[in-house]
Design goal:
18% helix; 8-stranded mixed beta sheet; 294 residues; alpha/beta
Length: 294
Amino acid sequence: MYKITESFDKEHPLPLTTDGELRIVFVGVGSAFAKRNRQSNILIIQGDHHLLMDCGTQGPLALNDVGLNVKTVRCYLPTHSHADHIGGFEEIMLTNRYFGKPTPPELIILRDYQEILWSKSLSGGAEYCEANQGRPLQLNDFFEILRPKATQVLGRKCWVYQHGPIEVVLVRTRHFPDSADSVDESQWCCGLYINRRVWISGDTMFDKEYPERFAQEAEIMFHDCQLFTGGVHASYEELMTLSPDIRAKCYLYHFGDNWDQPETWVRESDKFTGIPEEDGFLGWAQPRIAYDFF
């Protein structure tokens, strides 16, 4: 059972604890270049534990929108290396190392992806940020590394990390390059399955088997959705081919700034309205509100 319980802003800051319920808060729901609703970065909170799924270029601003900052958030999980998901990590690293608490924040990350994230994206602004340190800095100088373990969930290879009461299952997705025919041919990208209740697709091309598999167990699903067909994200048109039972479990997120103007992206020939509730979905995911699971 879940319900939408609260909304948050600078005057009503988001607490990073709950009374025991699982809480999902999108600090943003927009696509990579969206401006109206920030980018799709997601706080997962339960009891005294929390983690932030991604922190993009607008991530520090989005945290500020709900009365938080990159020092108050103490655990991060990057899903992949696009800027709308990791563009805020340099601020996380440098702010915490030089102005933060005595202990570094935590980072949930696979060993193989740790090397890619550091060497291809983050080292340029952080590796040599100290004089006479004796060696180049590494990612584990900025974070306490938490390592997920390989497992099988619903017959699919995944990785799991138990973060206090929050079970985080990382599921590989087929996101980029657009020529990839399978997750094995794709660059690292993952979605999350939280407490075997809440499925968050992560960035993904349309992969019908992916939501179908997790819909067997998930109570609520949040699916990546772009407003045109093609490229490296699932489109609204493609998501309309999911069964009515699956659509009835799905909120849509990671959408463009014209989501609320379907006349700009729905063609007369399309067999849908562009209004999710009329097309069988739960609706557009909303930023800065709490989805609480009891």
